[in-house]
UniProtKB/TrEMBL annotation, chain A:
The keyword NADP does not apply. Residues 26-487 form the Amidase domain. GO terms for cellular component: glutamyl-tRNA(Gln) amidotransferase complex; mitochondrion. GO terms for biological process: glutaminyl-tRNAGln biosynthesis via transamidation; mitochondrial translation. Keywords: ATP-binding, Ligase, Mitochondrion, Nucleotide-binding, Protein biosynthesis, Transferase. Gene3D superfamilies: Amidase signature (AS) domain. This is GATA amidotransferase. SUPFAM superfamilies: Amidase signature (AS) enzymes. GO terms for molecular function: ATP binding; glutaminyl-tRNA synthase (glutamine-hydrolyzing) activity; transferase activity. It holds the Pfam family Amidase. InterPro entries: Amidase, Amidase_dom, AS_sf, GatA.
TrEMBL record, chain B:
It holds the Pfam family GatC. This is GATC amidotransferase. InterPro entries: Asp/Glu-ADT_sf_sub_c, GatC. Keywords: Transferase. GO terms for biological process: glutaminyl-tRNAGln biosynthesis via transamidation; mitochondrial translation; regulation of translational fidelity. The lineage of its organism: Eukaryota, Metazoa, Chordata, Craniata, Vertebrata. It comes from the Eukaryota. PANTHER family: GLUTAMYL-TRNA(GLN) AMIDOTRANSFERASE SUBUNIT C, MITOCHONDRIAL.
């Protein structure tokens, strides 16, 4: 490992340059001063400080549990957390206190991480903007960055800050915003159609979607059982590798986790890419892709080419059906998964008492928003006896074709695919809400969705700022369970592009020392 | 082909959520239209895919009781309960058929 001149938070903790309690307090203070972002639904101040105290005791004895000991983290509010409210940004679960921790949450706590709070999302993770939850939309921290403000054509600052703010993307927008604004060092998201990578791209952070079956879904409130995965959001690829290392592996409580032995890895500093084969799928030049992102994508391909890698155009012919396929399979599984919310055992319960059915119907009418209800109804339609073969089974067949497209390309010698993550940079909220959730999701998930269909690992790496001063990310898709290779390439790319740090007033004000240095923005 | 009022009512009954208004029904129509694009794909001879992990054996553990006895914890989250029972309103009462005035499906 190369020697680093600047402070890194983990070694800073180890060397006593900062204590876990100080670190925790600073993050909590920053959460307060960035409250307008609406990234957090619940801030667990008391328990976080207690966890920080425990961590401090361990450090003082010279016995930290690992790299994550004392590191402040945030968790998307669709993961069960014992004793801390889990709402899924829905009226259906307002006030719900889970009796258990999701496996991934437990693993982080076992490593000594400090849980700062639960982050905001689209209701039940349905959406691509983090705008449709009951606690309101999440604001992209870059809306308030000097980089964005400088490029903004507005004259009057305060007036336009109010109407010009841009979305985080979704559905893990709160987690992305939390990491982007330095209020935590890593956050958990979930990824079913791109929900971790999309907001990562818009917020300028690293967003990793692991291979399906690598990380336990136990305790992650399910959307689509055959596609959901916990997602990891960090400020650099090395940090994502560290978090992955602490989360991956078989969980007896989730029988869809593979039983292979998982070995955490450190990422090598790749210098020679000449043995690498990068594939550029032409279908990812999707309608609506901004000229800016197209150019950046091309530039990235050239970067690899000039460094000696083999870069070839490849084809994934069924790409354009992926989003339609997803639409059917997602709504069908959602229809099934949302059936558990009936008001009897947990969550909201209507006062309607005439009959079980009328109570269920009223509870669900009161508890779910339009988006959720719409998907449940669509899903039930596709699952009707007369429709099952033509929609559900058909979609499952198309799914196989999509997965096979990837297999063919990887078998032809390609190691990694390079694609854009989003069609454009983050839209202003006022623009975004002009179209309905389903339309937006269909548009925004186009580039990320197929990886979920095929279960492949994929990562967003921030690449450059757009003309509007907002982050643009690029996506790498790898072979199943080849996270080490995927992250190694991503790390190399990250090093080449040197994505700028967000210039946020609130962050600067808090502590120039720990937060300003690029390297200390990470913990590993 | 437009979705019939009969199917709409059937869906509301199955899903136990309502379309609420004409917009909700329109949303379903659009969703079906969108999904119809799948018919363009030739899937002759293709097997449906349930899971990307279909080539692996699902994990099965020994049938040993390793946890449980947490009735008290689980009941904490329920609104209506009596001793160790979740209390539901009377069952076997079908939802009332909405009359013309009240139907939310008027718009279709």
């Amino acid at each position: 490992p190369e020697s680093r001149v600047h402070l890194q938070v983990s070694s800073a903790l180890k060397e006593g340059q900062i204590t876990p309690t100080e670190l925790c307090q600073r993050c909590l203070a920053l959460i307060k001063s960035t409250k307008f972002l609406n990234a957090y639904i619940t801030v667990a101040e008391e328990t976080a400080l207690k966890q920080a105290e425990e961590s401090e005791k361990r450090y003082s004895k010279g016995q930290p549990l690992g790299v994550l000991d004392g590191i402040p983290i945030a968790v998307k509010d669709n993961f069960n957390t014992a004793g801390i409210e889990t709402t899924c940004a829905s009226n259906m679960l307002k006030g719900y206190i889970s009796p258990y921790n999701a496996t991934v949450v437990q693993k982080l706590l076992d490593q000594g991480a400090v849980l700062l709070g639960k982050t905001n999302l689209d209701e039940f993770a349905m959406g691509s903007g983090s705008t449709d939850g009951v606690f309101g939309p999440v604001r992209n921290p870059w809306s308030y960055s000097r980089q964005y403000k400088e490029k903004s054509l507005s004259k009057s600052h305060s007036e336009d800050e109010e109407s010009n703010w841009v979305i985080t993307g979704g559905s893990s927008g709160g987690s992305a915003a939390a990491v982007s604004s330095f209020t935590c060092f890593a956050a958990l998201g979930s990824d079913t159609g791109g929900s971790t990578r999309n907001p990562a791209a818009h917020c300028g952070v690293v967003g990793l979607k692991p291979t399906y079956g690598l990380i336990s879904r136990h305790g992650l409130i399910p959307l689509v059982n055959s596609m959901d995965v916990p997602g990891i959001l960090t400020r650099c690829v090395d940090d994502a590798a560290v978090v992955l290392g602490s989360l991956a592996g078989h969980d007896p409580k989730d029988s869809t986790t593979i039983q292979d032995n998982f070995k955490p890895f450190e990422l090598p500093d790749l210098t020679d890419v000449s043995k690498l084969s990068i594939g550029i799928p032409k279908e990812y030049h999707a309608p609506g892709l901004s000229g800016e992102i197209l150019a950046l994508w091309s530039k990235a391909a050239d970067l690899f080419k000039n460094a000696g890698a083999k870069v070839t155009d490849v084809s994934l012919p069924h790409t354009r059906y992926s989003i339609v396929c997803y639409h059917v399979l997602c709504t069908a599984e959602v229809a099934s998964n949302m059936a558990r919310f009936d008001g009897l055992e947990y969550g909201h319960r209507s006062d309607m008492n005439k009959s079980t059915e009328s109570m269920y119907a009223a509870t669900r009418r009161e508890g779910f928003n339009d988006v959720v209800r719409g998907r449940i109804l669509s899903g039930n339609y596709f699952l009707l006896k007369q429709n099952y073969e033509n929609y559900f089974i058909k979609a499952q067949k198309v799914r196989r074709l999509i997965a096979n497209d990837f297999l063919k390309v990887f078998r032809s010698g390609v190691d990694i695919l390079l694609t854009p993550t989003t069609l454009s940079d983050a839209a202003p909220y006022m623009e975004f809400i002009k179209e309905d959730n389903r339309t937006r999701s269909a548009q925004d998930d186009i580039l990320t969705q197929a990886a979920n269909m095929a279960g492949l690992p994929a990562i967003n790496v921030p690449a450059a700022l757009s003309e509007r001063g907002l982050p643009i990310g690029l996506q790498f898709i790898g072979r199943s369970f080849q996270e080490k290779q995927l992250l190694t390439v991503a790390k190399w790319f990250e090093k080449q592009v040197k994505f700028p740090m967000i210039q946020l007033e609130e962050v600067k004000r808090l502590d120039p020392g720990v937060f300003q240095h690029q390297q200390s923005a990470s913990f590993s | 082909p437009k979705v019939t009022a009969e199917v709409l009512a059937h869906l509301e009954h199955l899903a136990l959520v309502d379309f609420r208004d004409a917009e909700g029904v329109e949303r379903l129509q659009k969703a079906i239209q969108f999904a119809d694009q799948l018919q363009e794909v030739n899937t002759d001879g293709v097997e449906p895919m349930d899971s990307v992990l279909e080539d692996r054996c699902l994990y099965l553990r020994e049938d040993d009781v390793t946890e449980g006895n947490c009735a008290k914890e689980l009941l904490k989250n329920a609104r209506e309960k009596v001793e160790e029972y979740f209390v539901a309103p009377p069952g076997n009462i079908p939802l009332p058929k909405l009359d013309e005035q009240e139907t939310s499906l008027q718009g279709s």
